[in-house]
Write a structure and sequence with these properties.
Blueprint (H helix, E strand, L loop, with lengths): L8 E4 L5 H12 L3 E6 L2 H15 L3 E5 L5 H11 L4 E4 L14 H29 L2 E6 L12 H21 L4 E8 L5 H14 L3 H10 L9 H11 L11 E4 L9
Parallel strand pairs: 1-2, 1-4, 2-3, 4-5, 5-6, 6-7
Helix pairs in contact: 1-2, 1-8, 4-5, 6-7
Length: 259
């Protein structure tokens, strides 16, 4: 399918690897020029070079921690008037509710709620003025079914979900579609870290922990960054203008919900 977005420009944050890279690559394959950012210069440069060479699109890398206000300003300056925004940031660490302090919650909210909101506030008005835009926020399946050890993430990402619910419906009439993609477990560094945590807690090997988690997923496996990216690219496409304010699970059926 031609996604109808060739020649448009997208900003994808935390895009050097994992789900962010999967989204950036799917957009590049559709002919979208990219501005990408991440904290690690080496991985970011490698990703930018690879995507530009393979897909013939313009890729502008910006080394930045998107949760830092000054760094975010540099990213926005480099991005300019983008048509597509994909927000992504690493999740807070797992833990126990009795151990989290006010500062822990503020860091989580800043990174996984206020940062994507700031990006939308900066870029969506321009999309509205031009009459077209797409925003996809990478959140988590935990906003549908909270995960006990990820309380910081549950809190922050659910707050973002509430913001998008109202905002998406206010801007839809101007041609801007805002939606959230909710990943389950994908074969990324985050999954490795979670499996290592289970291994340390239970005494199982990391591979045993992985197999145990895979057994809880109806699809019987972890997702891939490529298939997650394809879902993201569709939501960014010319065909997704009637999908507004939705929270779409990409989790292999792991969360057992009918609506």
């Amino acid at each position: 399918m031609d996604l109808g977005i060739r020649g448009r420009t997208a900003l994808v944050t935390a895009a050097s690897k994992g789900l962010g890279r999967g989204c950036a690559e799917a957009l590049a394959q559709a002919g979208v020029d990219l501005v990408i950012c991440a904290r690690g210069e080496e991985a970011l440069a490698a990703t930018a070079g690879d995507l530009a060479a393979r897909y013939g699109v313009r890729v502008t890398p910006v080394v930045a921690d998107i949760t830092d206000e000054a760094a975010r300003a540099r990213v926005l300056q480099a991005a300019g008037a983008v048509d597509i925004l994909v927000t992504n940031a690493g999740g807070p660490p797992p833990g126990v509710w009795t151990d989290w302090t006010r500062e822990d919650f503020l860091r989580a909210i800043d990174g996984n709620m206020l940062t994507p909101i700031a990006l939308m506030q900066a870029l969506v008005p321009g999309m509205m003025a031009r009459g077209w835009g797409r925003v996809v926020n990478i959140t988590s399946g935990s906003v549908k079914a909270p995960i006990d050890v990820l309380g910081l993430s549950n809190t922050a990402r659910t707050g973002l979900t509430g913001f998008v619910a109202g905002t998406a419906r206010q801007v839809a009439g101007k041609g801007v579609a805002i939606n959230n993609l909710l990943p389950g477990i994908h074969a990324t560094d985050r999954a490795v870290a979670l499996d290592q945590g289970v291994s340390a807690k239970t005494g199982k090997t990391v591979e045993e922990a992985k197999r145990m988690r895979e057994a809880s997923i109806p699809a019987g496996r972890y997702g891939t960054a490529a298939e997650f990216g394809a879902a993201c690219a569709f939501l960014c496409s010319a065909h997704a203008g009637f999908i507004i304010g939705q929270n779409i699970l990409v989790d292999g059926g792991a969360i057992n919900l009918t609506m």
